[in-house]
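User: I'm preparing a small set of examples for a lab meeting where we compare how different chains pack in three dimensions. I only have the primary sequence for this one, and I'd like the structure in token form so I can line it up with the others. Please keep the answer compact; I'll paste it straight into my notes.
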Amino acid sequence: MAGRNAAPAPDRIVAAALPGRATTAANRPRLHELVEQLLAESISLDEFVLGAPAAGLDRVEAARLAAACAALPTPGAATLAAVSAQPRSGGTLRVGLWIGPEGLDAALATTRTSRLLTEQLYSTLTSLDADGRPYPDLAEWIEISDGGKTYTFGLRPGVRFHDGTELTATDVAFSLDRLLSLGEEYHFEPWTVTMAGTEVVDRSTVRLRLNQVTGPILTWLAFCGSGIVPAAAVRSGHDLDRHPIGSGPFRLAEGGLGPDGLRGPIRFVRNGAAGTGGPNLDGLEFVTMLDDAERAQALIRGEIDLDAFVGPSVWPTLTGAHGLGTSMVGDGRWHWLMVNCTDPLLADVRVRQAISQALDRQALVDDGLFGLGSPIRGGVVAPWSWAADPALAGFGQRADLDRARALLAEAGVAPGSRLSVAATAGTPIGIRQAELVAAQLSRAGLDARLEILDTAAWAESVRRDGSFQLATSYWGSPINDPDDFVYMAYRSGARFDVGTCGTPLLDELLDAGRASIHQADRAEHYRHLQALTVDELPLIPTVQPPVLRAHTTRLRNFVPLRNAQLKTLRHAWLED
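Assistant: Understood. Below is the structure token output for the 576-residue chain.
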């Protein structure tokens, strides 16, 4: 659990967030307790909202105070460069991307690069702080009723889309209902399954009804895929993929995409005036450079200002370069081995445990991630999360080959038994991880062989016909709620449950973790779940890499987020 780093006293936070507001002696203890609990991450935003009236706060005051708490620094939220005395207006920040975006319609985007762009274009009801905790954004206030199954949002007044039309509750309702209508076409459809529908209360008030209590709902609404779009334009057939219209801090430059389309460069310009709610930067320019070394050299030469995703192989080059700042932040990414539990060999949990014991996870970090990362020694929820279990240590940092061989013998596996480890072509880190895994398993007495498959063959073997045995995979959480670390990987029938290793108890714990707004209850479910996965190994966790960023030291007040997104560019600026 991260918590706030040397946070000011609650009375100072209240005074700064709600200037001129006097608290009564009767309300002050409860108000201070609420603030302290939110800062310590012992309660959720939902619990804070529900407890606010008893502390004498109205709904707008509660939202402002929650946002003020989210703005406080955390241990993982140090700015990449020191803040100067006054923000500066102007300048275009040039951002290097490691792969081109696939489109600019946030609801249809599946790649991380598309998400980096669309979060600048569209507003969301909530946003995430540096540790992935939600706070009100487009929502001026939030009410929770019906036992946690109804959320009512009051919208900030005066918000307009990039085309000048007013953003209203009709647009919010349409945008959320649109996600429901997309079904599985929405890449993050598991985040909408508990949404029952919306209701427009009035021009500035919208109601979201759920079919069950949903703990992560305010976090899901912060995801860029939940960005608000103009209902009238989309209904008329407007193409958001090529001509986006949002209400975010930046908009697509006049003239739209250039002659190379999404291959770039893609230029955004400021939406609104700096100092009046608009960003400080005049604009953003996104340039795709597939090669990590090419981006690094472009950054050193001053041809780009920010490398959005530094490759680990070039990290040493950038950390010592003149005029550059770097940041290494633990995020929600983790690697694992997919396991085909329908395979006769791998159906035996003792074989899965033997494979886990045979892995030298520290070597996977040292040789596979250039020493940048951490071995996963227990649960897969990130160690900084409020749902992590730091005491859980089911896996060794180094291999225990004696234990691995004993388990294989106990399971009746003959020495030299064949085992394939698949990786997707074009994924250097995935291939390197698979190479290392195969070599490590061979030392335990298995005939482990690397199998590199093109995208179509990988999809056929892993996704459809289940002919694989082991396959490398990873997930980068874009929201950092513990549900996102585990649900799609472990829930029976979910996207990454390709090996059908789930169990009824795992499913029950996953569902229970979603079905509460009480943070302590959710944390207990996720810790129980992680302990169970260490024993059952429906998949085999390996390593957690950090997110690496590098930029010109002229970039100021940019806070790296644990979900590896760039939303805080709205508050950044360039020094002369």
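A couple of notes for your slides: The two ends are 38 Å apart (CA to CA). Residues 76-121+248-323+553-576 form a domain with the D-Maltodextrin-Binding Protein; domain 2 fold (CATH 3.40.190.10).

User: Perfect, thanks.
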